Amino acid sequence: MLKFTEPMRKRIKLKVAFYYLLFRKMLTSSKVSIAPVGNSYDTYRYWEILLCRTTLIAQNHHTIVPNNFEHKKNALFFSSLRELKNILEYYFLGKKELLRIAENRRRP
Asked: pTM for this one?
């Protein structure tokens, strides 16, 4: 079994913190982020995207979620790759609409 010394642990923690901050900076500077379904719709990424003031584009999870976001109001949802392609083409041509959705991300 590999044993880590205290200085090694500190370096690992610093690297993890650095890469997480880099990830957050990249997410915050993005206009949109895609959250595909994993084991469940309710993943960290689903919520991180919204907290970073980025427009959420999420795969439909076909699960009833109380007070979930609404398609085209405060998030965008897709069920197939064709739908995702159409969403990306439409909203990247109409950036004002994309920004409006991003601003509505926290509103019911």
From this structure: 0.70
